[in-house]
Specification:
heterodimer, A: mainly alpha, two-stranded antiparallel ribbon, B: mainly alpha, 2 domains, globular, transmembrane helix (chain B), transmembrane transporter activity (chain B)
């Protein structure tokens, strides 16, 4: 794609920036059916399907009823298949009920609650996923989401309980503070990368661990500590992100913020000069430097923006979902965000959808665990299989016998000039 | 400053050679000077009084009585040593000479010892140096195995972020198979096989399908955590006999284990630690002195050249990624059979990433990786000691220490350390 960016003079025309496009050119002349079969959407669906099948196998093999039925398989083979179907389907039905709509619930509010839970859990995943995706496209691998979420959470909580401010102003201040906290934390990795060449993967991993211990310590300090160990004082109501729905639901304005920011990131990356420069550095740092773009500055800027987005994920947890800082504020958001961004191919729309999917899996997994006893860890297995399959399109095509859009017997690595942006973006 | 960002390609290197000599790089000396200042601060803070040191164990043939070391004087001596290391590094940097790893290791160890003196001076408790060092070596074991796995994989051009997953898979397999067989030694056979399985997935996706290696590694870590936790919550919970505690016995080596101080530390360990010695020595020699090692490095540095002289690049990568997986998997046995523990969810707790850092600090060489891993092991051991000495410093800050050191080190040494040139780039003919 952007092998030869415009000289970084006074703003290259956004329209001339060859926006990464889906590889649709070669397929245009072909039949509609072929186009549909080789589309990336179908590929994504195929990857999810394969992951679900593998997950089902795992559930079936480890199910005690199935194991019991397998003992007398030759006497009554039907029992085995019935038990297997029962184990897998009950797990997935519970997963769906916990993620979207629970038709067994006693009242309509409870029936619809799973969907709002999905959106609530998806909120920080989308924000942190945008962070990872933006860094990817700028040529950086931000594994530090975890630490940035924590720092965002710490700052948000401190601003939230320390100050007395009018309602709207307070929440704005806390949210902005969280973004700044995350940006500064990620900025460490950006500055070190730009100034010394220290690899951002190592530095962000180390920063994650440091932040993990920092939050463990900070919730014990007199400034933060509350009566409950491991939990800070609650933030004032003026600093809370207001709820979107009445009481039994936890969904808050953080979700709207995430969607707005997804649009914002899209505009930044696709329509602004800064985004063009970031993408140019991500696509080919040397060419970008030749074109007069400061790679060092773009590295720092990209990490700072990514950190701000991840910090907002922390704010969403502290000011929205939880209302306080806990030692486990980040959960596994930072790591899940990597898989979210990979699944979403580092694009804002894709990230939102991937965040919703992972939020649904996570929300559904909890109900699955309580209803059928299938461990929540199944969700991790599903997530990693989905991303592995997404990352290797030829494998999915081979297994599902889907046609290759390039219609070549062996997929060659695309030449640099016309690299399909989806891979370049995901690989960064 | 942006000059350091240049990817160190062979082309850039030759271009740089034609230009006038680059300005001396003072980054390492500066980091060491900072370390010296920190050590001096620790020496200032050291309370009056002596540290009681014991360097023999109760079972030793030759008993050395407990003796007292003056706290402050020792701390200042250590400060002088760190300062000397920093000064030597300055001199070397000025002459544009390479700063050897041992200078950094000496400075790091002295700083850690100063910390030890700071926390133990004036206390009545005895500091069991032997136990401390033996514990250090033991805690460093999984880091060494993980880092060696990283060395093998990265030298052949495959980034192995999946060390964490390989350790965890090895720990799981070792525990389950050892429980089934009723022998811890059988666990040592199963652990590398589990590591190979993870390595095979890494190779399959990154070589066969050319997926970005960092991505595959990250996802494989999640996959292994998910799979082992799932099996732990289902199969192992229903069949607790599959996850019993089986421990590798300690095997003192006759004669060698009776050497004062060295013996109990190095030669009163279990089989896994002895295997580690063998693998470190073997890899250090083979990577730099054998045909296999030459091919390995050629593939990692310049695959096209290797291909031209008839080396099958992708086959070499496949084999060595599997080998790396086996090494890390074996290291995973540390967490279960070597520690005498049953398997627990996510029990590797990020050690794989520390191993990755140790590999980079060790500059992609086996002995360097060992040195870095030992420093990490020592700081881990100091944390345990500080808990027993009831030091009034929040333990979280000590836990952070290795990570801060790693960041300083990676930032300080990054300019001079170069990863294999073809690392992370799929090879297509």
């Amino acid at each position: 794609m952007t092998t030869a960016p415009e000289p970084g003079g006074p703003g290259p025309e956004p329209s001339t920036a060859p926006a990464p496009v889906e590889p649709e050119g070669p397929t245009r002349s072909e039949s509609f059916v072929h186009q549909v079969l080789s589309s990336s959407w179908l590929l994504t669906l195929g990857a999810i399907l394969l992951a679900v099948i593998l997950g089902a196998i795992l559930v079936i093999v480890t199910d005690p009823d199935v194991q019991a039925a397998a003992v007398y398989f030759f006497a009554r083979p039907g029992d085995l298949f019935a038990a297997a179907w029962d184990a897998a389907s009950s797990a997935y039905v519970a997963l769906f009920q916990g993620a979207v709509y629970d038709w067994t619930a006693s009242d309509p509010a409870r029936a619809i609650r799973p969907l709002t839970e999905t959106l609530t859990i998806a909120t920080p995943l989308i924000l942190a996923g945008l962070s990872v995706g933006l860094a990817f496209r700028s040529g950086l691998f931000n594994i530090g989401g975890q630490g940035q979420v924590i720092l965002g959470g710490i700052v948000a909580a401190w601003l939230g309980f320390q100050f007395q401010l009018p309602a709207v102003l307070h929440v704005l201040l806390a949210v902005l503070g969280a973004a700044l906290g995350g940006a500064l934390w990620a900025g460490i990795a950006g500055v070190l990368k730009a100034r010394t060449g220290a690899h951002e993967v190592i530095v962000t991993i180390m920063l994650n661990n440091i932040a993990g211990y920092l939050v463990l310590w900070i919730v014990t300090t007199t400034l933060f500590a509350s009566g409950t160990p491991g939990v800070s004082k609650a933030v004032h109501d003026t600093a809370r992100l207001p709820a979107l729905l009445p009481a039994p639901f936890r969904l808050h304005w953080g979700f709207v913020l995430a969607i707005v920011l997804a649009v914002g990131v899209w505009w930044l990356m696709e329509r602004s000069t800064l985004g063009f420069r970031l993408r140019a550095v991500g696509a080919n740092a040397r060419a970008a430097r030749t074109a007069g773009i400061s790679v060092a500055r773009m590295t720092i800027v990209a990490m700072a923006i990514a950190g701000a987005l991840a910090g907002l994920a922390g704010a969403s947890q502290v000011l929205g979902t939880e209302g306080m800082l806990t030692a486990s504020v980040a959960g596994s958001i930072g790591f899940d965000a990597i898989t979210v961004a990979l699944l979403g191919r580092s694009r804002p729309l894709g990230t939102v959808l991937a965040g919703l999917l992972f939020g649904a899996l996570s929300a559904g997994g909890r109900l699955m665990q309580t209803r059928t006893g299938t461990p929540l860890d199944l969700v991790l297995v599903l997530q990693s299989f989905i991303v592995l399959f997404i990352a290797a399109p030829p494998l999915v095509r081979t297994i599902l016998r889907l046609p290759d859009p390039e219609k070549k017997p062996s997929r060659k690595r695309p030449a640099r000039g016309d690299a399909p942006a989806e891979q370049a973006g995901a690989v960064a | 400053m942006t000059a350091t960002l240049d990817a160190p390609t062979p082309a850039a290197a030759t271009a740089a050679a034609a230009l006038p000599a680059p300005p001396p790089a003072y980054r390492t000396p500066i980091v060491l000077a900072v370390l010296a200042v920190v050590t001096a601060v620790m020496a200032l803070a050291t309370p009056a009084g002596a540290t009681n040191v014991r360097i023999s164990t109760n079972t030793d043939l030759f008993q050395i009585p407990v003796f007292a070391v003056p706290g402050r004087a020792t701390a200042w001596l250590l400060t002088v040593l760190v300062l000397a290391a920093a000064a030597y590094a300055f001199v070397l940097a000025r002459g544009r000479r390479r700063i050897p790893v041992w200078v950094i290791v000496v400075a790091g160890v002295c700083a850690l010892l100063a910390l030890l003196v700071l926390i133990s001076a004036g206390k009545t408790q005895v500091v069991p140096v032997t136990g401390l060092l033996a514990g250090t070596l033991f805690l460093a074991t999984p880091l060494v195995f993980g880092a060696l796995s990283g060395v093998v994989c990265e030298r052949v051009g495959i980034v192995n972020i999946a060390i964490e997953g390989q350790l965890l898979a090895g720990a799981f397999a070792a525990a389950v198979v050892a429980s089934m067989a009723g022998s811890a030694y059988v666990g040592l056979i199963a652990a590398p096989l589990a590591g190979v399985a993870v390595g095979a997935l890494l190779a399959f996706f990154s070589i066969r399908y050319q997926v970005n290696q960092i991505i595959v590694g990250v996802v494989l870590n999640v996959l292994v955590v998910g799979l082992t936790s799932f099996l732990f919550s289902t199969v192992l919970r229903e069949n607790p006999q599959l996850n019993s505690r089986t421990a590798l016995p300690t095997l003192p080596i006759p004669l060698l284990s009776e050497i004062p101080l060295v013996g109990p530390v190095l030669f009163r360990q279990n089989l896994l630690v002895y295997l580690m010695y063998a693998i470190v020595i073997a890899l250090q020699i083979l990577i730099f002195r054998s045909r296999w090692g030459l091919r390995l490095r050629a593939v990692g540095e310049h695959p096209k050249a290797a291909d031209t002289v008839g080396i099958d690049v992708n086959r070499t990568r496949w084999r060595n990624t599997l080998l790396g997986g086996a090494v890390a998997g074996l290291g995973g046995a540390f967490f279960t059979v070597a520690s005498g523990l049953a398997f627990g969810k996510e029990m590797t707790a990020g050690r794989g990433f520390i191993a990755l850092a140790a590999m980079i600090l060790g500059r992609w060489s086996p002995t360097g990786a060992v040195a870095a891993a030992v420093v990490f092991g020592l700081s881990d051991q100091l944390r345990i000691l500080m808990a027993t000495l009831a030091v009034p410093v929040p333990s979280q800050f000590l836990l952070m220490l290795p990570y801060v050191v790693t960041i300083l080190a990676v930032a300080g040494f990054a300019g001079k350390v170069r990863a294999p040139a073809a690392e992370g780039i799929p090879y297509v003919k």
